Amino acid sequence: MTTPLSLNLMQAQMFLDDTLIADQARLQRRPHQARKHPEPILRPDRPWEGRVPVMYGTVLRREGRFQMWYCTSGPAKTVQVCYAESDDGLTWRKPDLGLIEYEGSRKNNICLAPEFSRYIDDISVIDDPQDAQWPLKALFWEPCGEQEPRYGIRAARSRDGIKWEILPGYVLPRWGDRFNAMPHRENGKFVVLGREPDHRLKYDQDRTVSRTESEDLVHWSEPILIHKPDLRDEPQMRIYSATAFRYEGQLLGFLERMHMRPDVLDNELTWSHDGLKWQRSAERLAFIPRGEYGTWDGAWLNLNSGPPVEHEDRLWFYYSGRSGCHATPYPNVGAFGMATLRRDGFFSIDAEEEPGFLQTHPFIWQGDELLVNVDTRRSEAAHPNYPAGWLAVEVRDERNAPIAGYTEQDCIKVTHNSERRGRRCYLPVRWTGERRLGSLAGHVVQLRFILRDASLYAFKAGTA
What we know:
Elements: E1 13-14, E2 21-25, E3 28-31, E4 35-36, E5 54-62, E6 65-71, E7 81-86, E8 92-93, E9 110-112, E10 122-127, E11 136-143, E12 151-158, E13 164-166, E14 172-173, E15 180-181, E16 190-194, H1 199-203, E17 209-214, E18 224-227, E19 237-242, E20 245-247, E21 250-260, E22 263-272, E23 278-280, E24 300-303, E25 309-311, E26 314-322, E27 334-342, E28 347-350, E29 356-360, E30 363-364, E31 369-375, E32 390-396, E33 411-412, E34 427-431, E35 444-452, E36 455-462
Antiparallel strand pairs: 1-36, 2-29, 3-28, 4-27, 5-6, 6-7, 7-8, 7-9, 10-11, 11-12, 12-13, 12-14, 15-16, 16-17, 17-18, 19-21, 20-21, 21-22, 22-23, 24-26, 25-26, 26-27, 28-36, 29-35, 30-35, 31-34, 31-36, 32-35, 33-34
């Protein structure tokens, strides 16, 4: 008999791959792109920012406030790290911090300046609440001129994200200038994804992404290669960098894909069950598409190192864009944007006019009600009050026999889009006689989702 899957049903069970799926028919998995906010949420308007500030940085929501750390860029004289904050995630303040002098004045929002050189090229801020004294850590890249090591990743710590204490020397000497750290500890450890030393010789690739981890930000593990182009990528495509964050019990991230002909950069969702083996979708769809040629995000678009912010019952993603790429002469312009996605809405399982079904592998039901993230509209343009489709659920036992009272015929069909303000994107599934799945807690079950003209994004246990 098949061993039941071990699932944390308080977290969303998404259909990124076939891990949950035992059988299906007449359905299709579809990836979804985030929807851009119509205007940039932050533009460069201070002389120390230059024309092209970059989100080689982090956005976090902490203590009810949005915080952003980003890098300035040319033609500013010094490339530094700036700080911005927001109450609503759309209107941002650049406070005068009074910390670092720029052209004779400390009236600016610069929070971290290079110590060995004239520029910092990358920063990742890590939320570390288990350290009450230093709840924020940061890793940043800085060159050192001709002295060995000539460049690498340095570390800093902070109590408030504004004043930083830099640790001496390099914690990852000779690592490349484009990296990201995971925004929180993973299994108690700090994790960096970046270009390890001598990666060109080791992997015969111009750009790759390796993983290393540390308990103290000083001593790091032997790097392990996790991302490089594969045979489905165009020959001139490079993996410029990658992010990773934990989301609903799973590791998600984004690849920065640099297409060399032409030289443009976009992004792609990727996911992993163990942090070492990462998967990519068959479609290789850009998660946030670039803008039109010549616009502020028409050539270069990268996401920050932080996770999506869950806000107003949607996921908010922050990114930077610019109008030019490597060696593009000025005026090259850039700004920061925001894009949103349905909660847990990275992929959906779609049915058309003819009903289809998806059946899970057996697992132990541990919870009260079955909640589903579903859209019963043929398209997003359909009127939300007049859906065309429906979803039903049949519950089967470990021998694949329908359980009395929980058959498809007993199910009260879900006929509404679950994405409504205040619902957190989930609706309960019930059966006739007000039956709820909580009565089967502790039993091994298989869920058979039947859909018509509907999209199923995820399911979980909870209380409506």
